[in-house]
Model the fold of this input.
Amino acid sequence: MGLIRKLIAASAVSVACTLVILPAHAEIKGLEIIAPANSGGGYDQHARALQQVMQDLNLASSVQVVNVPGAGGTIGLSQFVTAKKRNPSLMIGGLGMIGAIRINKSPVTLDQVMPLALLTGEYQPLVVAADSPIKSLQDLLDKFKADPGSVSWGGFAVGSPDHILSGLVVKAAGGDVTKMNYIASGAGGELMAALLGNHITVGTGGYNEFASQLQAGKLRAIAISAPQRLPGIDVPTFKEQGLDVELVNWRAVFAKQDLKAAEKKQLDDAMAQVTASPQWKEISEQRGWINLYKSADQFAAFLTDEKGRIEGTLMELGLVN
Done:
């Protein structure tokens, strides 16, 4: 069983275990959620979904989302760790932050925050502008093989899942990853502008980030990183096109490391209620998020394993020493 299938199976068990009546807690007032990226990207979308559902469920009030972009999320991480605030705060993070910390040699790491809950996973498409001469994955690979420098691969920060996926595609196709022209084009609106303006050849990110432009016919998806075709999404997988590439970009929520036991339990219970709620499930379905929920202790164990796996992949791709 592959990693993605194991995660989905394990999360189903986790959610089943949360379908009990959890003890009531006082409403969390003045909660701040750090989204360590610009608006519109995956971190921002998760922060705002969490804001909405926590308020709908009366788990928190006056919830504010604060965008702190830069360096693959490590600037937001640094601010989250070092800020001295009275109000309770959370931070959205994910797979990409592991790579960003290593590549940017960040002095602040995920060892300085508390893993609170693994939330979701998302498969990633490769997309091109609708007027691009690239009509298929094979067209892209042929162009790269003929002249690697002529293909610019766009996505979030260096070391992000976008960067990793681009490298995995090149490697699986027998190309030289060191010749890959990867451009950190940002997330959300920044990446969209670069794609639609033909400033980059191909881009990647969470499917939902591109969904509206794909439906409007302004972008074309040529492959997706799922193990098999996704319901309602007419995009071929890498595997069915002959490339052994599969990747799920997980997102999670972190808390301050110095939480008291009672505070950790309150937030842990809150995340269980959020992820089991009809509101969260509806948002996830609309955005194509896979439920990967794990509680605080389960997520901490997962994160330890995931750091080793991702750092190994980064080394294999030549992104870190």
User: Anything to note?
Assistant: The domain at 125-241 is CATH 3.40.190.10 (D-Maltodextrin-Binding Protein; domain 2).
